[in-house]
Design brief:
The complex is a heterodimer. Chain A is of the alpha/beta class. Chain A is 30% helix and 17% strand. Chain B has four domains: 2-116 and 274-358, FAD/NAD(P)-binding domain, CATH 3.50.50.60; 151-271, FAD/NAD(P)-binding domain (3-Layer(bba) Sandwich); 382-458, Enolase-like, domain 1; 478-533, BFD-like [2Fe-2S]-binding domain (Arc Repressor Mutant, subunit A, Orthogonal Bundle), CATH 1.10.10. Classes of the chains: A alpha/beta, B alpha/beta. The interface between A and B is large, with 62 and 59 residues.
Chain lengths: 714, 535
């Protein structure tokens, strides 16, 4: 059956003639920059050419540009491994195709069995930051209202949770960039901590040009990343602190702001609270102590803080400083520094975090987090429960309480008190989760694993049931990008084979399990319901409709019914009831992942230009794979020499949790005590075999960025 | 469990703060007694405070109200005058001059250190050995010596006020002692526009930390920063002048053994510090360079007594302490004099006491006793040292230590590393900030240096990243980062007929991302020499 035929509205939107003539305006499937692109069906498809042609489209975030991933994105539409029919295991444990009816009946049966044996919390749901707003909302509703389970969380726990927690406690609101990216164009100074956007979202670099021209791009990274290289030739400064010392660095900068009388006193007085006790927490971080803790000379620290204090300055954080067991405190320290200098909510200045996944912003607002209901509401807030229960047509008491965060959800899977049946949507945790060998073991312990994906990911390969779903060019919906801008994703082609939208799958399953709860299948109607559910919440979408998104209007949430778009939510006041931002004092704690002696090194993990997340999509694009076909270990020539390694030699990287073998690539731009692995690669090449599953006490973010390893000749 | 903390400086206050959760849960009671009438401040920054850089609010580290609100008894401007270890009772003078008794289950000495007063004619000093202490009455316990007008140490807020007055009056300041604290003050004074002269008796500054080469390089840097230095001069006496009206004596000049009179309006004594351990001495507890405690910060002889920070001398006790003491035993080492280790001790002891009080198992290792790293704080001078750096490169050392050295007096750079099996046992650097900070981390970790020692020197060079791109474009040079397009690939496109940036983008996608490389592509189009393009 062709789904487009079955749904007249969707069919009208996936206007084949438009796709062939002027093309369909939509956005890239990958990162949170959500570059605008136009998809066009070629008149004749050349042999080996993708199904659709891609062209960049003028838009504030990407100004018509795309990166290598975006240009090749349509290759994934019919790449090898694309799922086109529901799969279940046969008697020999091999996947066999089956009908939707049989597959969904089986899933419903397994869910009922797990519930009957151990109650609703025996069923878990694991979502993703790449799902559309509509899917993310529907997934949360499905878990709470249809499954009645508290056990839902998502892979955004691995990326945005620390920055989100820090922003919520400081500002009362978590919108990654509380300003449009184009505001950065006029900055004199941009301090970037732990983000390598030159590889992860290259078209963003255009917004750094103003700061570069002013000599004010400051990049903090233990390796000389592609982004750090943008500071060369007088464009700015690269600081290379020891891994795990970012919090000390930020405390030291804040100390200097006070010691050198660079604090914006009027701003602190008028717009913040908690300064006095925060100041006491800084007295211990004089510059030379900061130097000893970070490896960054005191003089460089002075230069940085003086430059920031000159105004027209932004501070941006990324996963490099957030993916730590002290990530929330580190993001908080960055916010504290920004508040001292009067940056957030000031015209021409600001603080923001660089959201990573395509819908990493929207994905954290609509209720797929363990402790959250739509509209970025707390699941423990009685008023929020009443409001959402009314929309869902259930009793407030029927909504379960808070669940458990991703790392615990996954590690306890299949255990006595863990979930027995797990549904995974848009995520590949057997590559992307920390200490991944333990996660693989846990996943294999499950009674039932159901994976919804567009391709046969490494996680899907371990499933009992695999359900093929639509991907970006085959579906309608909305995404919320790194600036809180709500965007329309538009259907251009029909999905292949039997692939279906998750909205339809969730409605079908709910029909089997909880027919009394209504689930829409059409994206626009789900969006309308999402808007009503979010009304009055922190991320209020109730004033947005698809019509507005079809126009040229730029819509940033919050946008309440009867209100308007809010590109800069902190212009006048912060979101706490008193309108003030909070200084939250933080203190550095000892990090157990600290190398000792000569053999041990720090491992930091990160990304490559050619790959996205777990690589499930991008590893299927030959042009991207050809550039860097396999995992390589980056290390300093001196560290290599001490181990008898030359460029290209095979090395074993190991610690208590696991080991992997990779060729080495020498790079004098990385610290001598640090090695780097990208985490996009699967199975035995997975960098996450080595990462720690220790988590942040506030956000439950795992410690991806510091792990102690040894490196030796293979 | 009632914990009595003697001393409310940064280390004592940190301990109290660490006990807050246990205090709030009712597992412990806390009493803290501090001699100064203000909440704890960061003593490391007293010189910055004195010379006008930082306000008092900005060096505070502690909130006494928060502690009191949580139910602790806080006595500031009070002092413990005696400890009866047998009865677990301390006498406290709350400032009224009368003592009251406070019982304890655990007593923690965090009394810190006081400035050493050198033997100088004209400056009185108090002996605090056990015999002398028994002869004095409680009135002097916990107090510092009164110095003549115009003479001060630099340890507390009163000292800071005296220095601040001299700065305001633009007086010439004489600093006696070329240790790290004296030099930091001198640098601050010079930066503030004061005339300052440092008098010391050795040939070079920071003799305990630096070898001759580092000392000479540092001395040059200090002079360049405006600090006067009088070396080879043993101070013998203080000359005074009398105020014509009040007849009060006031410091006039420091007199050295060779007869020099070094004049100034203020003399700052910076001759090291000694533990404030007289209470423990009188209580019969073993004391050497500080109150002797084992690695768990517990007194060698009394399990209910702990000591942390500058008053604590951490050392492994002999098997039989009594026999050792009777034999007149001595023990090496002593307090580091640095705040960082003190805070670590406070954090650890707080965790341990809280666990004990709540009956929770406790297995956290006590903090390591690591050799101190000394860093000279000062904006214009960069000097870091650790361990023993006296060996010279061609010395033959039986213990396997090896020395490497780099000296560039003309440009003020100096590095010496002393290693055993490649691992640092000591180092000294002057004027090499990036190298210094990396050596600091390597020293702390105990990690081997690169076999090519010059790698660590090059961190401070302009070429410290050999992989950084030079202006010369090679075929492998990445031109378009967004799309990972090399110069060679663009060269091919140009060779195949691309004549504009748009053509090149069409063929290679270069320049179709952020657009930052379009100028470089245009440059390649403008200059079509095959050598540049690489085809």
């Amino acid at each position: 059956m062709n789904i487009a035929d079955a749904d007249p509205e969707a069919s009208a939107r996936a206007d084949p003639s438009r796709a062939e003539t002027q093309g369909t305006p939509t956005h890239c499937p990958y990162c949170a920059l959500q570059c605008a692109m136009t998809l066009t069906r070629p008149k004749e498809r050349a042999d080996g050419a993708p199904l659709l042609d891609v062209a960049g489209r003028a838009f504030p975030t990407n100004r018509g540009g795309l990166c290598k991933k975006g240009w090749t994105s349509t290759v994934v539409l019919d790449a090898p491994g694309r799922l086109t029919a529901p799969l279940i295991r046969d008697a020999d444990d091999e996947f066999v195709e089956t009908s939707w009816n049989d597959a969904l009946d089986l899933v419903a049966l397994r869910i009922r069995e797990a519930e009957a044996a151990r109650g609703p919390d025996a069923v878990g749901v694991f979502g993703g930051g790449g799902l559309t707003n509509e899917k993310a909302y529907q997934l949360g509703k499905f878990a709470r209202a249809a499954l009645r389970t508290s056990r839902i969380d998502y892979n955004g726990r691995f990326c945005m949770s620390s920055a989100a927690a820090a922003a919520n406690r400081a500002f009362g609101l978590d919108r990654g960039l509380p300003f449009p990216v184009t505001d950065l164009d006029t900055a004199r100074t941009i301090l970037i901590l732990g983000s390598n956007m030159a590889d992860t979202m290259p078209p963003f670099l255009g917004h750094l040009e103003g700061a570069r021209a002013a000599g004010g791009l400051i990049v903090v990274d233990p390796r000389r990343s592609s982004t750090a290289r943008l500071t060369d030739d007088g464009a700015g400064t690269h600081l290379a602190p020891a891994p795990g010392s970012d919090l000390a660095l930020l405390l030291g900068l804040a100390h200097l702001a006070i010691a050198e009388h660079l604090v914006h006193d009027d701003y602190v007085e008028a717009r913040t609270t908690g300064f006095a006790s925060f100041r006491r927490s800084l007295a211990e971080w004089w510059p030379e102590r900061t130097q000893a803790a970070t490896g960054v000379p005191a003089e460089r620290l002075r230069q940085v803080v003086r430059r920031l204090a000159e105004g027209d300055a932004y501070i941006l954080t990324g996963r490099g400083v957030e993916q730590h067991a002290d990530g929330t405190d580190t993001a908080t320290a960055a916010i504290n520094l920004a508040l001292l200098l009067g940056l957030p909510g000031t015209t021409g200045s600001g603080y923001g975090t660089m959201t990573g996944q395509g819908n990493g912003q929207g994905g954290r607002e609509h209720g797929q987090k363990a402790d959250q209901l739509p509209g970025y509401r707390s699941i423990t807030d009685p008023a929020a429960r009443d409001h959402v229960a009314r929309i869902w047509g259930i009793e407030p008491e029927a909504i379960p309480g808070p669940g458990i965060p991703a790392v615990r959800l996954l590690e306890s899977a299949g255990s006595a008190d863990g979930v027995r049946c797990l549904l995974i949507h848009g995520s590949n945790p057997v590559v992307s989760a920390p200490n991944v060998d333990a996660v693989r073991t846990a996943i294999d312990r499950l009674d039932t694993l159901v994976v919804c994906d567009v391709v046969m990911s490494e996680t899907a390969e371990r499933a009992d049931v695999v359900l093929p779903v639509t991907q970006w060019a085959e579906e309608d919906g909305t995404m919320t990008n790194l600036e809180g801008r709500v965007l329309r994703r538009r259907r251009t082609v029909d999905p292949p084979g039997e692939a279906r939208s998750e909205l339809w799958i969730l409605a079908e399953l709910a029909g089997r399990l909880a027919p009394q709860v209504h689930f829409d299948v059409e994206a626009e109607r789900v969006f309308t319901e999402l808007g009503r559910a979010s009304a009055g919440g922190r991320s209020d979408y109730s004033g947005i409709d698809y019509g507005m998104l079809d126009g040229d209007e730029s819509v940033h949430w919050p946008c309440p019914a009867g209100g308007s778009s809010t590109p800069r939510p902190f212009d006048v006041r912060f979101a706490h009831p008193d309108g003030r931002a909070r200084f939250v004092s933080v203190r550095r704690r000892p990090n157990p992942e600290t190398p000792r002696g000569s053999d041990q090194l720090w491992l930091v993990t990160g990304r490559l230009l050619e790959q996205y997340q777990s690589g499930a999509q991008t590893r299927r694009v030959p042009e991207l794979v050809a550039a860097r076909p396999r995992v390589e270990l980056v290390l300093h020539p001196a560290a290599a020499h001490a181990r008898g390694l030359a460029d290209g030699d095979l090395a074993v990287i190991a610690n208590d949790r696991g080991h992997l073998t990779a060729p080495v690539k020498l790079d004098a731009g990385i610290r001598m005590d640090t090695v780097f692995l990208p985490f996009h690669f699967p199975e035995a090449d997975s960098a996450n075999l080595l990462t720690s599953d220790a988590v942040d006490p506030v956000s439950a973010m795992p410690e991806f960025k510091t792990a102690v390893v040894t490196v030796a000749r293979a | 469990m009632h914990v009595l903390i003697v001393g409310a400086g940064p280390v004592g206050a940190r301990l109290a703060e660490g006990l807050l959760p246990a205090l709030r849960s009712g597992a412990v009671e806390v009493t803290i007694v501090g001699a100064e009438p203000v909440p704890a401040y960061n003593r490391v920054l007293v010189a910055e405070h004195a010379v006008g850089g930082m306000g008092f609010d900005e060096i505070l580290v502690h909130d006494a109200d928060e502690l009191a609100d949580a139910g602790a008894r806080v006595f500031l401007g009070a002092r413990v005058t005696a400890v009866d270890a047998a009865r677990h009772v301390a006498s406290v003078d709350d400032g009224s001059g009368t003592d009251s008794e406070i019982g304890y289950d655990r007593i923690v000495f965090a009394t810190g250190a006081r400035a050493n007063i050198p033997t100088l004619d004209g400056v009185p000093r108090t002996a605090r050995d056990a015999g002398s202490l028994r002869r004095t009455d409680a009135a002097t316990i916990g107090l510092d010596d009164r110095l003549p007008r115009g003479v001060t140490a630099l340890r507390d807020l009163d000292d800071a006020a005296r220095v601040a007055t001299a700065v305001q009056a633009r007086q010439r300041v004489v600093v006696l002692g070329a240790g790290v604290l004296g030099l930091e003050l001198a640098l601050l004074l010079a930066a503030a526009g004061c005339e300052v002269v440092v008098v010391h008796h050795g040939p070079t500054p920071m003799p305990r930390n630096l070898d001759r080469g580092a000392g000479l390089t540092l001395a040059a840097a200090l002079r360049a920063a405006g600090v006067g230095i009088v070396a080879h001069s043993r101070a013998e006496a203080v000359a005074v002048r009398h105020d014509p009206d009040t007849r009060e004596a006031h410091f006039d000049a420091l007199v050295t053994a060779d007869g020099k009179h070094v004049h100034g309006g203020l003399l700052v004594l910076s001759c090291g510090v000694g533990a404030r351990s007289e209470l423990a001495t009188l209580a019969g507890l073993p004391v050497e360079a500080g109150i002797l405690v084992d690695r768990t910060l517990t007194s060698w002889t009394d399990p209910s007594v702990h000591a942390i920070g500058d008053c604590a001398h951490v050392a492994d006790p002999p098997a039989d302490v009594r026999a050792w003491a009777q034999a007149g035993g001595r023990v090496g080492g002593g307090p580091s004099g640095l705040i960082g280790p003190g805070w670590q001790q406070a954090d650890w002891l707080a965790a341990r006491l809280a666990a004990e009080a709540s009956g929770v198992p406790f297995d956290l290792e006590p903090p390591d006793e690591r050799p101190a790293i000394v860093m000279l704080k000062g904006e214009s001078v960069d000097c870091v040292a650790a361990g023993d750096v006296t060996p010279e490169p061609w010395d033959v050392l039986d213990d396997g230590r090896r020395v490497a050295q780099w000296a560039d007096p003309e440009h003020g750079g100096y590095v010496k590393t002393v290693t055993r099996a490649g691992v640092l046992t000591g180092f000294a650097t002057v004027g090499m900030p990036r190298t210094a900070s990396e050596l600091t981390l390597l020293f702390e970790r105990g990690a081997e240096l690169p076999a090519d020692r010059s790698v660590v020197l090059r961190f401070d060079g302009v070429d410290h990243d050999p992989s950084a791109e030079s202006s010369a474009i090679t075929p492998e040079t990445t031109i378009c980062w967004c799309n990972g397009v090399s110069a060679g690939r663009i060269g091919e496109a140009i060779a195949c007929g691309a004549t504009t940036v748009v053509d090149v983008g069409g063929a290679t996608r270069a320049g179709t991302g952020c657009g930052g490389c379009r100028e470089r592509i245009q440059g390649m189009l403008d200059d079509r020499s095959p050598a540049v393009i690489g085809v």
